[in-house]
Write a structure and sequence with these properties.
Blueprint: H1 3-13, H2 21-39, H3 42-58, H4 69-95
Helix pairs in contact: 2-3, 2-4, 3-4
Length: 96
């Protein structure tokens, strides 16, 4: 993991939450693209991208730094999008 990102995470965890914007700016577009490929609906992808960054922020203290932050957040994005797609497929199936 990059030292500057490790330092930013430490500062965020100490209360400088405005620094989280760095991760939104750095990874937001790629997270959106990943999510959009899975859910194939732009509105859902935008909402899920927000969910991904909220989840990552809420669980930032559990980030161990054994992988890069990008790997960690892309994993959250992938799992969030897959869960949403499965739920939507299940909801559609039940309604039909």
């Amino acid at each position: 993991m990059k030292d500057d990102e490790r330092h930013i995470i430490q500062r965020i965890l100490r209360g400088e939450t405005a620094l989280y914007e760095h991760f939104l700016n750095t990874y937001g577009q790629q997270v959106f693209i990943l999510v959009a490929r899975i859910v194939s609906n732009q509105e859902d992808a935008e909402e899920l991208t927000q969910d991904v960054f909220l989840k990552a922020f809420q669980h930032l203290s559990s980030f161990k730094g054994t992988s890069s932050f990008s790997t960690w957040i892309y994993s959250i994005a992938y799992n969030t999008a897959i869960s949403s797609a499965r739920k939507k497929k299940f909801d559609t199936f039940v309604i039909d």
